Amino acid sequence: MDQLLFFFALLNPFLLSLYLIDLMVAMPSRQFAHVLTRGVIMGGVVFSVFALTGESLFTNLLHVNFASFQIFGGVLFLLVGIRFFFEGVSALSGLRGDPEHVAGSIAMPFLIGPATVSAAILMGASIPKWHAVGVVWLTLLLMVFGLLLLKFIHDRVRVKSARLVDRYVEVTGRVSALVIGTYAVEMLAQGIGRWVAAM
């Protein structure tokens, strides 16, 4: 249960809705659900691979220390959080590629990121590996339902209070950047701790 709650906190539907707000506004519900489902399947496959292989993917295949990934991922995550804080939600839309590849760009960087990959690896190390895979897919399923519910609510509320919704999203997005920054610093601290311990 702890692993599920932690992974769900990283894939928080509310936080993801801020990242994907431009798609939620531009796309009808059916198209958004289709694109989101494709992105989630890509992410689920990647998380499952990392949960099953764990740190061995880094040590045996890439010949690097997992701590190095955590440190570099923490730096990247921190840069995203800083940009998000100062530029708002619009800063993140530029991280996605061309519109025709939108499902892949939902999967990465918004689902498949340093924090979620690290969480999948650590989850696979702390509980039976197939249980970890089950937690991954259950979390993704809950996240999809949460995002579709938020899309439904957003479409109804935005019609009446567009300016208020836009302002709320902007303020909440900047506050959420603090959460991103906190996860980033925690990743850096864990990575540096592992790296020092391995020396």
From TrEMBL:
Keywords associated with the record: Cell membrane, Membrane, Transmembrane, Transmembrane helix
Highest taxon of the lineage: Bacteria
A UniProt-annotated Pfam family: MarC
Source species: Paraperlucidibaca wandonensis
Main location group: membrane
Protein name: UPF0056 membrane protein
Ranges annotated as spanning the membrane: 6-23, 35-54, 66-86, 106-127, 133-153
Lipid bilayer topology: Multi-pass membrane protein
UniProt xrefs under InterPro entries: Multi_antbiot-R_MarC
Entry's family note: Belongs to the UPF0056 (MarC) family.
Keyword Membrane belongs to the record: yes
Subcellular location(s) of the protein: Cell membrane
